[in-house]
């Protein structure tokens, strides 16, 4: 199944573009599902049909779904209380009733990830369009499965889970309480669910599409988004320049905004596949307005980016890891080696990535940023590297 993740700065019209993209695909005969995590029904307003916790038919071949974060959070909490009943009773803690539960910050994001996973596994549709939150929240959302799995494995490593059969003996020897069975089961279940979401996000049939209104603010947002996506090994398959004013308006009082849009579009042309969507003169509402928007269709491109390792042992005695980081600034880059992981920071964005197997037997020999690519040199560690002829 093809998956298109759509995001952009707040107010850029990303939900409208997501709805128009889904409607266009459905009218071509593609069984399409469009997802949104917005608390307000912006998606339904664009499609002209109310959306909510249950999927609804918005048009022929088109289903719209806005999962209910409150219900999902309530079910998860009820399940947690049931599994931890013994601990809660021991502490004398009173349980929360379902009626008093409200979702905590982040519940909407987790609910959307779960819905994304369920939709991908169901295979009831050929195309999945996901209306992600605004870019900063969307970038955190895309990083969430990988980060949470890393935290879980640090808190309860697999080797400790493997030894859970020895828990009663270890508890008596150590003289301290050992983790209960439900904790191991919960960690294993979360790891499995997060792994399924991560697989969808990393699939070659999943692409990220940016939406932005050309102008100074939009240009800044696109530069930041491009760098953050690159740090996650992604690049947009297309950049939708939304609400583009007609050039004819350059002769009246709109001359200033038209000039700003033209400058942003020229800046975007080289690094992105830019698709312009004209301003309708009003906020799009209903299928007729969505049809009038010339949104890009579904293509076979991929938004994953390779991070290759080149062998320069014969010439320079090093291996070089190439990490594309378009828009990165040298002074804003930071690298830290932590065991078999590398912490890469680019401005406000940060990612901890496992080293390729060959580089784990090396030491960092230096790094340089050239032409939007971070090149990290690794020298073989004589104590770990096999003898070479």
List the helices and strands and how they pair.
Layout: E1 2-7, H1 14-27, E2 32-36, H2 42-47, E3 56-59, E4 62-65, H3 69-83, H4 85-91, H5 107-122, E5 127-131, H6 135-155, H7 158-162, H8 167-174, H9 181-202, E6 206-212, H10 216-231, E7 238-244, H11 255-269, E8 274-278, H12 286-292, E9 309-312, H13 313-316, E10 318-324, E11 333-338, E12 341-346, E13 349-354, E14 362-370, E15 373-380
Parallel strand pairs: 1-5, 1-6, 2-4, 2-5, 6-7, 7-8
Antiparallel strand pairs: 3-4, 9-10, 10-15, 11-12, 12-13, 14-15
Helix pairs in contact: 3-5, 5-9, 6-9
* CATH fourth-tier homologous superfamily of the largest domain: P-loop containing nucleotide triphosphate hydrolases
Q: Total strand count, please?
A: 15
Return the average pLDDT rounded to an integer. Answer: 83
CATH fold name of the largest domain: Rossmann fold
Sequence stretches where pLDDT stays below 50 over 5 or more residues: 169-178
Q: Give me the CATH architecture of the largest domain, please.
A: 3-Layer(aba) Sandwich
Helix content: 40-55%
Shape: globular
Measured by DSSP, the beta-strand proportion falls in 15-25%
What is the domain tally? Answer: 2
Structural class determined from secondary elements: alpha/beta
Number of helices: 13
Largest sheet: 8 strands, mixed
Biggest sheet: strand arrangement? 3-4-2-5-1-6-7-8
């Amino acid at each position: 199944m093809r998956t298109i993740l759509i995001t952009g700065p707040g107010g850029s019209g990303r939900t409208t573009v997501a709805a128009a993209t889904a409607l266009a695909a459905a009218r071509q005969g593609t069984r399409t599902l469009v997802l949104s995590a917005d608390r307000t029904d912006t998606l339904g307003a664009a499609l002209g049909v109310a959306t909510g916790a249950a999927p609804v038919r918005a048009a022929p071949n088109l289903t719209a779904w806005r999962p209910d974060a409150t219900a999902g959070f309530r079910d998860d909490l009820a399940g947690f209380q049931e599994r931890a009943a013994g601990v809660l009773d021991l502490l004398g803690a009173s349980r929360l009733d379902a009626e008093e539960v409200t979702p905590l910050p982040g519940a909407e994001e987790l609910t959307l990830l779960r819905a994304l996973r369920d939709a991908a596994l169901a295979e009831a549709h050929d195309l999945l369009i996901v209306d992600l939150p605004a870019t900063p929240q969307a970038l955190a959302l895309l990083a969430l499965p990988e980060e949470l799995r890393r935290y879980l494995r640090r808190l309860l490593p697999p080797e400790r889970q493997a030894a859970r059969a020895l828990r009663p003996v270890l508890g008596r020897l150590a003289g301290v309480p050992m983790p209960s069975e439900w904790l191991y089961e919960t960690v294993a279940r979360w790891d499995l669910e997060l792994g399924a979401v991560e697989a969808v996000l990393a699939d070659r049939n999943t692409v990220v599409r940016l939406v932005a209104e050309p102008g100074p603010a939009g240009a800044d947002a696109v530069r930041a988004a491009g760098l953050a996506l690159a740090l996650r090994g992604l690049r947009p398959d297309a950049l939708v320049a939304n609400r583009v004013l007609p050039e004819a308006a350059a002769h009246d009082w709109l001359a200033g905004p038209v000039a700003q849009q033209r400058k942003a579009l020229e800046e975007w042309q080289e690094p992105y596949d830019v698709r312009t969507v004209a301003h309708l003169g009003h906020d799009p509402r209903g299928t007729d307005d969505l049809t009038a928007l010339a949104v890009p269709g579904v293509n076979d491109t991929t938004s994953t980016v390779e991070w290759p390792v080149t062998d320069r042992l014969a010439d320079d005695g090093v291996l070089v890891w190439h990490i594309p980081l378009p828009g990165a600034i040298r002074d804003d880059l930071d690298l830290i080696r932590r065991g078999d992981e590398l912490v890469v920071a680019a401005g406000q964005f940060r990612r901890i990535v496992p080293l390729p197997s060959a580089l784990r037997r090396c030491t960092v020999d230096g790094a340089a940023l050239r032409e939007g690519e971070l090149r990290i040199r690794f020298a073989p560690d004589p104590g770990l590297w096999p003898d070479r002829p």
